Batch of 4 targets.
Target 1
Amino acid sequence: MLNVILYTYEGCEACDEVRHELQRLQAEYPHRLYEVDVTHQDAFHNHRARLPMIEIGHYHLEAPFSLEALQITLRAAWEQAQKAGSKPFSPHEVSRADRILFSFSRHYVLVLNLILTLYVGVPFLAPLLMKAGLTLPARMIYAFYAPFCHQLAFRSWFLFGEQAYYPLEAARIPGVKTFEAISGLRQVSDPWSPERLQARAFVGNEQVGYKVALCERDVAIYGSMLLFGLLFARFRNRLRPLPLLWWVVLGLLPIGLDGFSQLFSQYSFAWLSSFLPYRESTPFLRTLTGFLFGFLTAWVIFPALEPSMRETERLFLRKFALSGK
């Protein structure tokens, strides 16, 4: 016996005609009809014009199609099944993992946005907790993020202090207190000095404020990814995939130039020192390049996931229909 899957939606008059025709053909081509209401399913949100949709084995029909085409397709599927040999129908088992994956495929944008919100938001709890005198949970947050970020104080944002940031003297930003001035550390610009580790461990105090647990660039990267994720949740049907060339030129190249020129200039490579003098990036450049990289990276990732998530949703709808659940 054939399995026929009919994808419908509320108020679909053509679906009623197809359903009536299938009932008429039941005696000639015995089949089980499984209906899937996709009124509220994202997988078919932009494909209403393709409904009703029919799946019969390997055969597939999308609207608009005639009742004659439906009969021809049903006959072809029936003849193919007879040649292959009739096999007893066994329902498709639906596991908890199936339900979880189906739910993720439907709500993956929400899930990813929640993850990004937590990842970029929790580091701001650390200075809040320090300000409130809850040093133990604050230190736990700093410790958790330490493997993922250098947490250098002179490249991080500060809350509740005199300034939002305290750059190195080498950054040459006029009118601000430098990290050397507030910490008393003088050799921080040397990446091999013990003071470098002290700069990483420095979380602040009541006067200068308390450090965010992610550096300026990482806050910009993950914050801009979250921003795009929120825009994608609202305008996903209007946002086209970003060409990779744009991502390379506008996203990867600026952050690479800013980061690697700083890195190579500070680690005293003799062959570079003659034409690449020591430089320390600024909060503005770290934030700008981080924002561009994060936003454009998310613009590549989210639209790339969308087709596979919609296909996964459709496949699970089919499996649930055949299972009768």
Target 2
Amino acid sequence: MIKWFPGHMHSARQQIAEAMPKIDLVIEVLDARLPLASSNALLTELRGTKPCIKVLNKSDLADPGVTAEWVRFFEQSGKGVKALAINATGKGETARLTRLGRSLMPHRGGPGKPLRILIVGIPNVGKSTLINTLCGRRIAKVGDKPAITRSAQQVDLRNGIMLYDTPGVLAPNLEDQRGALCLAATGAIGDNAMDHEQVAAFVGDFLLERYPQHLVERYRLKDMPENGESLLEEVGRLRGCLATGGVVDRQRAAELLLNDLQGGRLGRISMETQADIVVV
């Protein structure tokens, strides 16, 4: 079972609560590959009636058809909620986000009345990348490990928009273990809190069911393995992840498979569809 809730995230929750009264609009950054697993019900609770844009980031790594379904889902989820699928590294795409934000708060953004936007999201969904692209320069730390941002900050974009940034927040109870495995697979959970072989086997089962052709193309498979465990063995043999005596080093094979998934080398893959989730 995956459990992970670093202590500094308790203070992040408090920082968000304190910032919310000064905010006009909330941007919640999600991973387009797993929009619900990368969301946080606490953020919805803290937001209250504030308008919100659900940003499905890393859409260039996700299955475009599935992403379009998620955008429609969020747009229909409640009053004041909009959704937008983007790649946060693209200035043109973030310009779409800025225009949408202004349209939701047309009375803000003028002299003396900046549009105050709080950007929130769990670790490693690309929140800092989005902030840096919006600013046109490096303001927030960016990395491929979760929990890079550790303190709140305020950034004046000098175009009538004021950004408020907070550390990533992840719910303390990862009771949905499928969601937790998806988070681990895409890099949102620290390496020390996960069993790479377990997560990779889960990913293997998922890919064999949903995206088998992606595996064939990436690893030049001649025969389709029966399950995720067998896939790890086959990938390990094909990619030279071998220990003494020619035995497959499953840890190395698992890390290779997960790195390929996270780097988009397996193609555009969505780990969640609405059919996978029971929404209460």
Target 3
Amino acid sequence: MSQDSGKIIETLNPNKVWIPVLFGLGIVAYLFYSDPDVSVENLALIMNARPGMFSLALLMILARAVLYIYRIKVIAKEHLDWTSSVYVIILWEFASAVTPSVVGGTAVAVFILLKEGVSLGKSLALVMLTAIMDNLIFVVFAPMVFFFAEGQIIPESPQPLEFMGWSFSPQTGIQVLFWISYVLIALYTLSMAYALFLKPRAFKWILLKLTTIKFLRRWRHSAYEHGNEIIWASSQLKGKRLTFWLTISGVTILIWAVRYLQLNLIIASFIDLPIADHLLIFARQIILWIIMLVSPTPGSSGAAEFFFPLFFEDYLGQYTLIANISWRALSFYPYLLLGAIFLPRWLRKVYKVKQSKAS
């Protein structure tokens, strides 16, 4: 995992916040002008939102941050204090927002942890463990959602989509994209779990054997380094008690429940939702997030806004556009803003500590 400081700092450049913002606003503008049923009046519908529900949706921003900070503190223990944990989470989320979802902010997260004084092995273990735990939410729950929802996950649309001369229903397109994304995420997550928890040395051996193939030889050195990283990370997790695994598993489930609950509260601030519909909206979000995870755009910007109406317009109707904007404004943009604010302070903090140690 490359730790080139110059490249990492460039990734964390606050000026990059405009890239995902422009992607997202571009798709919103496209949806606005391509749908004859949408007008400026739809934006004014925000005034119809129920203050109580919308306030709870705002509160989920804080709840999500607190849970993330608590989880990383549990995993890192004495290696991070609470202040450092806050910085790590805000900058990690910022990095994830300004890099493609398919790449994520893992290399940046390791760099941040290293600058906070966490050892390389511990940093790798922490980042890999949280990534695996988050991805397991999708790997485990997505098939359950499809089984129990009985075909209600992806609503039918009367308007077919056109692509390179092919015409197909949005439901078909979403299902194909979902299963491609799910298989890729499942393969990655299960292989990383095997390497980290079960057979790190066997995983390194497999990587080295694969890179003996002629067209893969150029990556042999990277395979060797990645294999060593897996072994270091795995050694950090040996001997953990059952309470540790139960705690981080429970907190991870709560993190994603809070993420999903935020959208439920936004939708419920515009329309009445019975319990059964709340559960179905939860289920649809699991599928939507899996599709978003393989987006090539920073923080899934554009992709999230594009797919939102396909999943939730049957509930929201005229409120679809304003709910779409509200969802991204509350779930995505806060970390762009916080990252841009906290990054300069963090850089001064870690490099001041480094200079004081050197002197």
Target 4
Amino acid sequence: MATSESVSSARPVTAIRGWLASQRNFQRLQQVIIFIIMVIGAIVMIAPFEWMLATSFSRSANIAMPRIPTFWPADPSVFNYKVAITNLPLVRYYFNSLVVTALTTLGYLFFSSLTGYAFAKGRFVGKSVLFIILLTTLMIPFEVRMIPMYQLMRQLHLSDSYAALILPFISGGFGTFLMRQYISAIPDELIDAARVDGANEWTIYARIILPLCGPALAALTVLSALWRWNDVLWPLLVISDRDLYTITFGLAIAGRSQGIFTGVALATSAIAILPIMILFLFLQRYIIRGIMLTGLKG
């Protein structure tokens, strides 16, 4: 009798163990599938970049492009880079890009964090409606807005100036949304305690909000720098003075004028993206962390 009872009680235990083992195997299979998909995606993204670098170091690419893409130059040479550096005012282009990117990013961080703080912790009539209107701007493509923006720059007599490259982008719906989501997760008790101690809104913003928004500000810094450094379309509209060309815009114009010299054109592209690529590699974890934390509280 005792033997039959022990056998019957052991059956559910065995079934549970089998079910847990099958669940673990299924989870492992899911992880393997996800890993394979991610590897394929990484290869698809990295392969064109690697092909660009390999071709930029090939002198023969200026004569005839290889029909089958190669990931190592058959004749390694820095000739294409020497041509690009010799024929182009790269120092001036880099200086313009640094000025535009730095000032635009600083303005973007200031206005995004300030308006994000107002929408997250402020109390005023119509806050929800205004925030929804702000979010609708994210649905309007830049190609729709660029003509009115261009007309505005002309009417303000700001064409062919740093201001034309900076002012239209020192504020935006995405930055405000990102900062609002992050600031919403900051406890209200901290702000209320500061107000009780006599701190005004500017003091709260500068001494409490900004120090606690490090990850979100870092993520927004990298994203804004990427956008402004890689921008070509807007400078094409508002800049005609060669002394104001940014690095990506100037090299894009130079690459077009080089015609069939593919190796030199790809070398100029590599030169243009190198600084921002280094910035992204060092700060990519802040992008991931900042965007993940903004989703903790809606």
